[in-house]
Amino acid sequence: MSTLPLISCRGLKKIYPLSGVEVHALRGVDLDIERGEMVAIMGPSGSGKSTLMNIIGCMDLQTQGSYYFDGVNTSDLDARELAALRNKKLGFVFQRYNLLPRASALYNVEIPLFYSGMYGEEVKNRALAALSRFGIDELADNLPNQLSGGQQQRVAIARAVVNDPLVVLADEPTGALDTTNSLEVMNILQKMHIEQGVTIIIITHEPEIAGFCPRKLIMRDGKIISNEISSSDVRSKEV
Amino acid sequence: MSVRFRVLSSFSIDALKANKMRSFLTMLGVIIGVAAVILMMSIGQGAQQQVLSRINSLGSNLLTVMPGAAGQFVRSGNVNTLTLKDAQAIAKLTGVARVAPTVRGNTLATCGNKTWTTEISGTTQEIADISSLEVELGRFFSETDVAGISSVAVIGQTVYENLFDAGVDPVGSEIRLSGISFKVIGLLKSLGASSGGPDRDDTIYIPVTTAQIRLLGKTDQSVNQIQVQVQDLNQMGTVQDEITSLLRKRHRLSDQADDDFNIRNITQLQTAAQNVTGILTLFLAGVAMISLIVGGIGIMNIMLVSVTERTREIGLRMAVGANKQDILNQFLYEAILLSLTGSFFGIVFGIAGSKIFSHFAKWSTAISIQAVVLSVAFALIVGVFFGYYPARRASRLNPAEALSFE
To answer: How many domains, in total, are found in chain B?
Structure first.
């Protein structure tokens, strides 16, 4: 088992039955991602990027094929075990942040910890530590609508990494941000990748964002059509 | 688990707090339902206590011996199995305080040019104590009057009003009962109308002997009933058994034969009244519970809306590690919390309503623990029952679809 990469997909297919017509979102994807990689997934809308991301994130199940995460066949796990996996080993960052609107920044970061069964001071301390990692601990008591887009995305990243996951999955994390904030978010992700060795997978439309990633996948019509690994110093040119 | 419970219930509380107005309106159904159950049950149980206390005022240590077998619906006047001698024999039993045999009949009473059809109660002086009769003017007839077959009469207030002009002292006047002359020796205080029953003031009391011999022509000495006052409440059963065996012996009934008389006591009447008012209370509570069910449907309605509104939140919670059970519990706790908080306010309003009702309607109400427990338990069941479906729906959402829900 230890020889398997962190993420290993074979022949992944996903078919959505949409009002009688079958939509083939994935048409056979083979993909291996090693521990500590930083990968960009690109491709036009409807190419299956998000579907692949949902399956990798254990948010959805493939119709066919196999997916091994951290040496475990996810098809063998029940819903409860998948939820625990998302809680402990996976972190999500979304284009629209998905913060609970009526909860403070701190509370939003605390939610994954609650679901891990943590309570009391430990929850607060860990959440605060996560916020301070991204320099927003002084905004802990603010509601999301009192924060700028960049600040909200940093809260969301803090929430994604508060449980020290193996993988951070970011679905167009800069899609709603201006250039300055986009670069900032990418710097944060890149720093995590370099300093903590966190595996990072980013869906993006923008070549500049993809430029931060040493490995680029391009999808089209439910298949990976390009898998390009550049030399590690490409990104320093882009910044 | 308890930690998870605490955390999930805090999520529920937060959600309810975030939408205070909606939470209150949702609770309103439960508030009204619980208040209605408590109010209705307190009115019903107040009625029950009132009826029972009235029955008690009739004297709870009374046994009434009637001729004819129990459960036989014959007019007691047609069965002549009880006699004055039976009454005298009963009076000698230990534990018996007083005995009043009574014959009844209707008669036309005349005084001067006024006439009035009324009830004759031929009895003994003991009836005054047994039935708590008090004399306003004159006196009640005595043992001597009974023994001497005197033509004396004690009249009730209604009789007085119909035979005499107001303010006239009736004592010493002559009245005629079915043509036979009687001397009025006393006027009774009003007993007050018994609710729904006959007018207890519309009676003329005369000695039982006089009634049998002179008025009703009962040569067999038969009586319509014998009222027995027992010395001690605890002896009711014993005395009843003794009277039964005494009368069976006196009437020479073989072992196989049924009693030719029956003995009723107030306890039986109390039981009957309790049953009737108990059914009334249940009926009222049942009607009120329907409003609780309606309240529960309100909870389900709002919870369904809430689940739809919060689909993205559910998806996000699932993405960061909530499992189905967590989501189900969170929404179920919300429903339970709504119904419990609603119950609490319902109890407050129900008790207040019951106090206000008894104050203005002059109708005593009784708030029982059962009513409170019953309504809260029912509200809880309603909350769980109607909260489960929306909660389950939330828990079954696919995380990926829920997150991309617009």
So the answer is: 2
